[in-house]
């Protein structure tokens, strides 16, 4: 009897020790679930997060993860309020996604104030790793400087040396126009004009007429999601590309091209850090993702959610505690990144995740084997070339 009691006590102690050894982590997926960016964020980000948690559990079951999600409606005040509530009341340790630059900048500030962690996988503004950088934020997928260097630089080298911008009238569009203009000018091109478009908007007709009338060789679309889709469709209706002007999609996702179809989007040049058909690793993940998303393939943002959570959980496992957000992010920067979607990389002191980007061209309909067979690769751009140099961003974390 005594032996049974002792054995039961020992088992209870082991069970308690195992429970105590678990690191509890709560992650909030905060994106656009109902608006213009829902295809590149939305439910796909939640699915990608679940896949990351499932995969990490196979590697290290000592980390127990709870996921929650919400819709920030592309409104900075809503995004900031949700982040604050999650941190203060709901015990969230890390927020991920943050599509829409104005919302991401708001989440960025709340996260620093509460000393939690934020992995931005959806917003483009390079200011997140520039003047607005904090010890609590990692910018994972792309930014306006990388897009400008990739697409802007390539178009000028192809002869597109005069530009007119259609710019979404909020921080992302303005930053993207600023950064692309700098690249165009640096490469010997000239910006002949621009027009700010309401965000979001369905009617680009008057703006496209201004761009057409400018005579610019390239019309730069400094927008994203549904705005980009509408602008490209309506440019086709106006016969803009047939008239000799080129469209530069400065932030285009595979979901946008899928919605447009290769007949409309063929020949469009764009820069992305991820494409579902790049290699065996991207294809395997994308097949799993598609089974939960009615056949839809993941965007680069969804890939960023998956990879960002995997790396965050590696830091959580190493530290055994994620309550100090700045400390957790510091550990993320210390550990080299390595995942099947972005490969090997690093996170710089300013929070910028460094990996290769790819210059793609949309296939002609005759080249495409199925509706998701969209891109051919024109070039691989090394991460240390496509992202802004560390000493040029104005991040206060960068010494000297």
Automatic annotation (TrEMBL):
An example Gene Ontology biological process: amino acid transport
InterPro entries linked to this entry: BCAA_transport (IPR051010), Leu-bd (IPR028081), Peripla_BP_I (IPR028082)
Keyword flag Signal: yes
Domain (Leucine-binding protein) ranges: 25-363
Signal peptide as annotated in the record: 1-21
Organism superkingdom: Bacteria
Name of the molecule in the record: Leucine-binding protein domain-containing protein
Organism: Methylobacterium dankookense
């Amino acid at each position: 009897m005594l032996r049974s009691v002792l054995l039961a006590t020992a088992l209870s102690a082991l069970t308690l020790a195992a429970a105590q050894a678990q690191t509890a982590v709560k992650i909030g997926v905060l994106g656009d679930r109902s608006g213009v960016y829902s295809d590149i964020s939305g439910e796909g980000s939640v699915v990608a997060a679940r896949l990351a948690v499932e995969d990490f559990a196979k590697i290290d079951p000592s980390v127990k993860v709870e996921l929650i999600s919400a819709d920030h409606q592309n409104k900075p005040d809503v995004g900031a309020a949700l982040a604050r509530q999650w941190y203060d009341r709901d015990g969230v340790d890390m927020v991920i996604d943050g599509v829409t630059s104005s919302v991401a900048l708001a989440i960025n500030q709340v996260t620093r104030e509460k000393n939690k962690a934020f992995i931005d996988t959806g917003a483009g503004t390079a200011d997140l790793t520039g003047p607005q950088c904090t010890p609590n934020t990692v910018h994972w997928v792309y930014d306006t400087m990388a897009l400008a260097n990739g697409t802007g630089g390539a178009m000028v080298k192809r002869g597109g040396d005069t530009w007119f911008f259609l710019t979404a009238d909020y921080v992302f569009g303005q930053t993207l126009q600023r950064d692309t203009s700098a690249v165009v000018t640096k490469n010997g091109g000239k910006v002949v004009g621009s027009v700010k478009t309401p965000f979001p908007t369905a009617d680009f007709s008057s703006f496209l007429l201004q761009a057409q009338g400018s005579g610019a060789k390239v019309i730069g679309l400094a927008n994203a999601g549904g705005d980009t889709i509408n602008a490209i469709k309506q440019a086709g209706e106006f016969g803009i590309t047939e008239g000799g002007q080129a469209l530069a999609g400065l932030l285009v996702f595979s979901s946008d091209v899928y919605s447009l179809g290769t007949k409309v989007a063929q020949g469009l040049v764009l820069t992305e850090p991820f494409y579902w058909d790049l290699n065996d690793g991207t294809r395997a993940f994308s097949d799993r993702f598609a089974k939960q998303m009615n056949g839809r393939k993941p965007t680069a943002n969804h890939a960023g959610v998956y990879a960002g959570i995997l790396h965050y959980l590696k830091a959580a496992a190493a530290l055994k505690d994620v309550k100090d957000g700045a400390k957790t992010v510091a550990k993320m920067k210390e550990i080299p990144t390595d995942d099947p979607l972005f490969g090997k990389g690093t996170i710089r002191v300013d929070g910028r995740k460094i990996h290769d980007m790819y210059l793609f061209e949309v296939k002609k309909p005759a080249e495409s084997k199925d509706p998701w067979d969209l891109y051919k690769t024109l070039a691989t751009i090394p991460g240390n070339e496509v992202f802004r140099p560390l000493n040029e961003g104005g991040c206060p974390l960068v010494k000297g």
